[in-house]
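Q: Hi! First time doing this. I have a protein sequence and I read that you can turn it into a structure. Is that right? Here it is:
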Amino acid sequence: MKELIGKLKGDRGIWAFVALLSLFSFMPVFSASTNLVYVVGNGSIVGHLIKHLVHVFIGFCFIYFVHRTPYHYFKAFSWWLMPLVLVLLAFTMLQGNTIGGANASRWLQIPFIGVSFQPSAFAFLVMMIYVARYLSKIEEKEYTFKSSLIELWAPVFGIIGLILPANFSTAALMFSMVCMLVFIGKYRLQYLFTIIGMGIAGLMLFVLIAKAFPDNKLTSRVNTWMSRIERFSSDEENEDDYQIEKAKIAIASGKIYGLGPGKSVQKNFLPQSSSDFIFAIIVEEYGLLGGFTIMGLYLLLFFRFLITSHKAPTMFGKLLIVGLGFPIIFQAFTNMGVAVELLPTTGQTLPLISSGGTSIWMTCIAVGIILSVTKKEEEIAQIEAEVKLRDEALQRIIDREVALEMEKENNDIEEIIEKVQKEENYSIEDQTDNPMNAVLKKK
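A: Yes, that's right. Below is the predicted 3D structure, encoded as structure tokens:
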């Protein structure tokens, strides 16, 4: 275990908070799965727990292998994966599968293994990396609105446009996160306001088309999310009110300390209790103390994202942490806001806690990329520390050699002085015979 932990690189705080959230998820998922077993009649409780365990294990494998990849490689990955993402989204939108009679064109069934995959989550990941790549490329270059419209916004609007008919909440989240990222990346504000205006105009045009052709399967979900917004702002009883009321009953029943693990009552009546409304089950079983603990863990994770983004060595690294980390926190608080009726029903899961393979895996890949950036920072700090140690050792060697040379020179000077002082006829006067003595002595 120590050897495995020693191989983990990157920010230790992010590792710790992600691990705590994932470990905590097992109890509420295990408890809430009784709704799927006894109400829906799907599988067994142990089976759902093992399924969640496998999803989390695969997710942490993604984190481990992705975080060991140098993060600058993802620049090229985003460029090559963007066409694949557009094809997947187009195919998913057109294939028109249904689950329980509802339009489920947000899902794609992987052949042979029978696993459902949500391409929009993968598209979100690739798109944010692509936007970070573009912003880092134009950091110190001149660019025009036309060039950015073609290189940046055309792919972004293409992805969002393919997701919008089936999943408005995800499309809105993606657009808001991209706008947040380009703002942080110092994209010109006049260009950004123009893009926001274009996005609002495009949404209104799409709604008008959907109203004009209500029977078209590509626009069939528009009435669903439009009615959710209308019902949220009205006082009439509706299906969403049933879910929200059950969620609020669960939260009120939990009080401060909760009913205890596995003792939730509303999990048997609340649809999507193991995914979209799992926060209500957490508060019912663990009380406000458990709910605030979860919120605190997400906030601490958010602060780690802020700190590591500030320390990132490159602009691309900073934008990667912001673009991939902030949506995790934003999605978490969106899920909590729905549970307490601050927001209309969105279908957004609670990251790292709700059951579901695609959401867990994509979140884990995003965390792995973030850790790859912090690993680079860690490596740079380690290299700088090693260079400092080498410089200090070299300076000590130089000081010792200089001291030895000075000592040797001092010894040589002392030997010369002693040798001169020992000469018997030493005098500063000339003791040689005067050559004129022979003449002077003649009288």
